[in-house]
Structure formats: structure tokens, C-alpha cells
Predict the structure of Metalloregulator ArsR/SmtB family transcription factor.
Amino acid sequence: MTQLLAAFSALSDPTRFAIVEQLMTEGELSAGDLVEGKGMSGAAISRHLKLLRQAGLVRQRINGTQRLYSVAPEGLRAIADWTISKRTFWERSLDRLAAAIESDKTWPT
């Protein structure tokens, strides 16, 4: 549960969410690549990356003087597993909503 809370907390920040989205879309990137277009300093991006690493959502690989980042699938799996475990709740809720809408159609207008 702790990892799940850390993951949600880390992703609640729009910049960190955007970083994870970018890494998922583009694959492994350097910190410099992640700075481009964000309007932030390298130090600010580094702080965000540190929080994402601590939450288990991002991996860091060192290649010479370059630090490369990629998504850690096992970190995202905690979110996916939690979401899937709540599937029954959502299906029942949607079924109740559909029934309520259907019963509302029979009321005279």
C-alpha cells in the first residue's frame, strides 16, 4: 500500500505526470532531453526525477557522464493492479447508474 500511495502522490504533480507520460511515449531519455520544453531548470527537473525514482516509477541508468531515465513498469503495475482490483465496484456503480437513468425515462414529463 505504501508504494501505491507514493506512486499516486508522485503523479499528482502535473510536471511529474508529464515526465512519466513523456518517458512512456518516447522511451529512455536523458535529463537534458526532459528539461527541453518544460520551462524549468535542470535542477528543478532533477528534483522531480528524484521523487519519481523514490516512488518507484522511474529508473536511472548512468552512461558515462549522462544520466538516462526510463519508466519502471513494476511501479506502474501497482497502480494498474489497484485499479483492476476495483473493477467490480466500478461495474456495479455503472450498472446502478444505467438502471437509474432507465427508470427515469419512464417518468412522465
About this structure: Residues 33 and 68 are 9 Å apart (CA to CA). The radius of gyration is 20 Å.
